[in-house]
């Protein structure tokens, strides 16, 4: 065991792992984190706590993860390379480990100009850091854990023991380089991988075949990403605007059909689309888990954490395994 | 070359409006090529300031001049006596030139007339592109001649992030993804396997992060000192 986290134990048990996502609020509302943690607790093996996603200021990942942990939900603290240099990164890792956190996902982070795709003001004039990139962040965390050394070489009397994660966009451009991209993260020390949202199952399976040929699926635990669709418009937006995500027309059509069935009744249109979105999610979960080399799913119900319980039950993934710590 | 662009004339006016005798001082190397601060642009700015002064009813003398370069002291020598007759110098050289001149003008302030933008090239007339960040530790041999420090919006060293879409950066559809270009170029060169290696965290002390940088070439310093001694001997100043 590298970290002894619940997520690591479930993955080692060979059962399909389930992670979810908790988006911290844009204000000092700790209660909101508590509420979301309660919705997710018991329905996943661990929940990612995002780190100022879409480049918008929110309760920090480390603080929200600590609150979630107090509520009995195991967090996967996310850490972007955008906002911290290696001094702040390592200081936060030491602090997180000292508070009992055991999983960390390394990501580059959305560029500061993103500002929730222009829906919020954000801080587009911020200076970004990128002292290290994702691969380097993974290697720093591994060096701290396995060698008891800081990046600069100073020794750590008590090393932070993280289960180290990284993200992967299987269908991103340049597509034939994406397997190499994953290999570098695995070589750097990624214990688990959470992928960008998958709707195009055929495309994902074709990339996974390359991953299996490289043997990467045995060196890291790949959790396929599923973004729960909430409306036809959302699927259309993701298809046209989100890098590395393509949505088959058949799925968009299903959602638009559900919307149309409600006529002018907006409330009903929302309910019908949400229902269809959950159905699509369950189908995607099964298709992803049937793909050889996949060890679990990462289900993201963005600002819709209440949907997770229904989805996990409908997918036959409830209750979550209870594997005692050693 | 160093690429700059003119500051808006309103901003320049706010900087200079309280001075009586202003010299707009152009530089005829890099910033002349990018049409920001050469002799022609210095003349235009001087004209605009005179017009503005007249509109605002302000008594102001504005002249212009230029030299070939603002980054070596000998170029200033022929004009320095004239330059020192003004109570403000508005330099349209790059930031290097503004700093360098400012160290040599005593009580006369030197203000910037342009915004210095980046080290770039001219792919086509009127277009300037940033291609180098001057980070002090070149890795272009490992990235197909395309710099991820200057050209990736996140300065990533180990490949693209998840934000690449159709070869463009997540920051803008108008911005090429450097890593897309690197991968395509290295495929063409047959050296893609070089990208499999994980590059470790880099030492940024060679970049701006180490504080202002200075290069001292000892062999040239030694030669100059020797030549200096010879001149002194020839001039009868031997001690």
Give structural notes.
The complex is a heterodimer of chains A (326) and B (239). Chain A is an alpha/beta fold and 326 residues long. Chain A has 12 helices and 8 strands. In chain A, β5, α6 (178-188) and β6 (192-197) form a beta-alpha-beta unit. In chain A, α11 packs across α12. Chain B is an alpha/beta fold and 239 residues long. Chain B contains 8 helices and 9 strands. Chain B has helices at residues 9-16, 30-33, 39-56, 80-83, 95-102, 148-151, 178-189, 218-234, and strands at 2-6, 21-27, 61-67, 88-91, 110-112, 114-124, 127-132, 168-169, 172-176. In chain B, strands 3-2-4-5 form a 4-stranded parallel beta sheet, with helices on both faces. Chain B has a 3-stranded antiparallel beta sheet with strand order 1-6-7. In chain B, β6 (114-124) and β7 form a beta hairpin. Chains A and B meet through α5 and α6 of A and α7 of B.
- Rg measurement of chain A, Å: 19 Å
- Note the main sheet of chain A: 8 strands, parallel, barrel
Approximately what portion of the residues of chain B adopt beta-strand conformation?
Answer: 15-25%
Distance between the termini of chain B: 45 Å
Q: Strand share of the residues of chain A?
A: 5-15%
Overall structural domain count of chain A: 1
Order of helices and strands of chain B: EHEHHEHEHEEEHEEHH
